[in-house]
Design a protein that fits this description.
mainly alpha; 7% strand; single chain; 5 helices; 155 residues
Length: 155
């Protein structure tokens, strides 16, 4: 089974590793966003976001400092509730994400021994001469998560 993944990652060197990390990023993003969908009450989340927008609008419009303090207290309470819901989702998705990252590290670094997936000519600070599996994974996961959340889940 492991040999299948190693062969999948290693095929056709210039594009194989890039295509494989894109697919792995997509799969992990779908799984994590599916967990988010199952754990979170999306209707309540949308209502809280709408409430935050309205409170920010009221805060900008008002000139009375006492009323501004009341609005800020309400915003803080609403933010705390949103944070509590986000924390629950983060805890549920943490274990699969860590396991997948450990698997990808072993796959790309230990088994397939792939260095840079994307290479560039200059030696840049922090990323040196290219992007390895982790940097590529982070970039593609961020893109896919934004697409899934904004376009598909409409959050």
């Amino acid at each position: 089974m492991i040999q299948f993944f190693v062969d999948f990652v290693s095929w056709s060197p210039p594009w194989g590793p890039l295509i494989s990390i894109v697919l792995f990023s997509l799969i992990v993003s779908v799984i994590i966003n599916l967990l988010f969908y199952l754990v979170t009450d999306l209707k309540k989340l949308r209502e809280m976001k709408e409430k935050q927008k309205n409170l920010q609008k009221r805060l900008k419009e008002t000139q009375d400092q006492k009323e501004q303090l009341e609005i800020q207290k309400e915003m803080l309470a609403s933010s705390g509730e949103m944070m509590k819901n986000s924390l629950k989702t983060m805890l549920v998705s943490f274990v699969p994400a860590v396991l997948m990252l450990a698997f990808l590290k072993m796959l790309y670094m230990d088994w397939a021994k792939i260095g840079n997936i994307i290479s560039w000519e200059k030696d840049l600070w922090l990323v040196h001469d290219g992007a390895g599996w982790f940097l590529c994974y982070i970039i593609f996961s961020f893109i896919f998560s934004m697409i899934i959340q904004k376009k598909i889940m409409k959050i």
